[in-house]
């Protein structure tokens, strides 16, 4: 890890100093694979605990039970003494029910449910989201003494759970059960902060505490729930070392750079891994043909299959560019829109999958109509087809304006599709520019966020693609790299120890 701060390096003495009993970690989040998924956060929350468990930790997870999670299908067991737990909310109490399920074979997951707030199909996007997640988080803390399980540390993800570190320092600070619980708050994307009116503080029972931030004027009196986590957690982390540095600057700090700079000695960047059992070209059941780095010839069948499914001419030689992304400016679609016409004049094929901004839906619909032999767009998210794109494309685009970590580039590399990325956040940490003269690098990168450098990176990739031996070496190198959670889990464990030390400081 090339970090701003490196927890693994700075706590190296602790590596020899094993604790007597395993660390007890509770991971709290709004989404987790395989139960509820909106984006990549769910992949992270679903696979980090498996790696921590493998490392010997006592790790458990808590998430809301949304209407879409069927207790029977998901094999959830109601916890007998947690079927009507009264949770303080504003001036009243809301009853919640808690059941238990599993991730993998042995990671317990606590599902928090309340009919009024969680019997809905969707996960986010309701006008009362603040109340919903405040209730969820409070229930998580309230259930612990009844479970009789006292974690050493609570690891919170995203704004939905950011209030927990704050409560541990405010309303729960003096209660013996909670006093020794340290906290880590992980930012997956600073652009989504959970900004609500000041009233949320009353609902959360912390109305009497004054939270004033240099970034907020008194007149608009808004609260960013994320800022409560950043302000109160013993340690703050984000999902790549480069993003950890970028969010300290006004250009990517989303008005939080002042607060983040004031706590920068507690801010760390740890790259996500990917679940290499799920994302495995040797076993992926959605692929037409399974393959590995030493059976690359079989990959050709996937390309032909992808071309067939995407209604493009079946030609194993034409370079095929894939892209799977939310259709939003953050992901670089404003750049792509500027170069899509000139791209369509080149000898290539392009398959895009994703949903988002209606403006881009319309743009790509028109492009597909005008260039039916070159472009194919799936304006929806479809898992089997996504895997076919990873396994059948030659190149994979991620020209993001910013990218906290990005998992797509790692999945693409594992499947032998070479990424073309902008040098930002986790993309900069995982993709290094190819230098064909020295046979080094694993993808094609550009720095300045503008259309010309992006276009130039694509041209460099297409030129390199003309040399089959160089290209095969590149594919092999990318497929054989380690994207597993192993290294990241080791860094998280060091981070947890660090947080415990910070917790002891006044
Ligand atoms: C967010 C970020 C993305 C990251 C993911 C998982 O979706 O935008 O870059 O990979 O979280 O941490």
Structure characteristics:
alpha/beta, Rossmann fold, 2 domains, ten-stranded mixed β-sheet, 19 helices, 18 strands, globular, binds alpha-D-glucopyranose
How would you concisely characterize the structure shown here?
The protein is built from 19 helices and 18 strands. The protein is an alpha/beta fold. A hairpin with a 3-residue loop joins strand 5 and strand 6.
Helical proportion, percent range? 25-40%
Number of helices: 19
CATH superfamily membership of the largest domain = Glycogen Phosphorylase B
End-to-end separation: 29 Å
**Sheet having the most strands:** 10 strands, mixed
Determine the mean pLDDT.
93
* CATH domain class of the largest domain: Alpha Beta
The CATH level-2 architecture of the largest domain is identified as 3-Layer(aba) Sandwich
Strand segment count: 18
Ligands present: alpha-D-glucopyranose
In percent terms, what proportion of residues is strand? 15-25%
Radius of gyration using CA atoms only: 23 Å
Low-confidence residue ranges: 8-15
* Number of domains as seen in the coordinates: 2
Quaternary state of the chains: single chain
Structural class: alpha/beta
Overall spatial form: globular
CATH fold-level name of the largest domain: Rossmann fold
Q: What do these coordinates show?
A:
With 506 residues, this protein is of the alpha/beta class. It folds into two domains: 24-273 and 486-504, Glycogen Phosphorylase B (Rossmann fold); 296-482, 3-Layer(aba) Sandwich (Rossmann fold). It has 19 helices and 18 strands. It has helices at 7-10, 40-54, 115-118, 129-147, 163-169, 176-179, 199-203, 225-232, 241-246, 257-262, 299-309, 333-344, 358-370, 383-392, 408-414, 425-430, 451-465, 468-480, 486-504, and strands at residues 24-28, 58-64, 77-78, 85-89, 92-103, 107-113, 153-157, 182-187, 195-197, 222-224, 235-238, 267-269, 320-324, 349-353, 375-378, 395-398, 418-422, 444-446. It is globular. Alpha-D-glucopyranose (GLC) is lined by residues 39-41, 44, 188-189, 239, 272, 403-407, 426.
